[in-house]
Amino acid sequence: MELDQILTNNVEEIVHETVTKLKNLGHPLTNKLEYSVLSNRIRKLVNQSVAAIKSGVDEGFINYMDDIILNRSGEGYSFIDMQNIMTVLRDKFIEIIERECYEQPDKIVEYLKVIINFTGESRICMANAYIKVRENTIIQQQQALNELSTPIIPLFDKIVVVPLVGTIDTFRAKQTIERLLNAIVSEQAEIVIIDVTGVPIIDTAVAQNLLNAVNAARLLGSTCILVGISPDMAQTIIKLDVNLFSDIITNTNLKKGLETALNMIDLEIKPRKKE
């Protein structure tokens, strides 16, 4: 009898014994699951494993592992937790093989090699799946941080403010420009105030990124006002011979920039008259 058939004939025993052993390990996430829920999960894993043992670890099995790791990691299972499940399952496979083929030692050796190879490949699949999950998490966190560090703030009708904080690298500059253009369209902004007070260093790369943002806004019909340039930044720009600000309105701080923006659209802020 072939290995996959031996395992298929003993699926329910494998599921029951594996679930029982996992419950005995005392893992809090596993213990909180009802027996039927955990059994269904293990049964799917057993069936997928048997199919992979028969036909090889293919794209279907890899996708199945990706889905499992994505779901289980979301529940709090670590890489070690999932490896322990595969270890318990492997041990049960070996037990079944030794019992069913006890009169065929050559078959036992042959099938054990298959199980060992499959276990190794499945562990690699799990490791790769966890790497994908971790990379996706890092990307999502980075995107969230970028959105927090570069907010687009509608300040008045037709005026938006972009306060920049921290280092402006190429990736962040591109994302800022995209978000700025979307905000210009959605807010119908005529004036964009870019505040660089929180940018520690302005070098050639940062200057070019600012120029790209200004030019992109100009293409949509918005005028940019640059505020917050410190004396050190001004000296650096002069030394770098960067002709960035020749046709851009600049102000010392956000207050002055807002006053300029309001004047450009014929608005002003006045105290209310007391009745």
UniProtKB/TrEMBL annotation:
The keyword rRNA-binding does not apply. Keywords: Phosphoprotein. InterPro entries: Bact_StressResp_Reg, STAS_dom, STAS_dom_sf. Gene3D superfamilies: STAS domain. Residues 149-265 form the STAS domain. The keyword Transferase does not apply. This is RsbT co-antagonist protein RsbRA. It comes from Sporotomaculum syntrophicum. The gene is rsbRA.
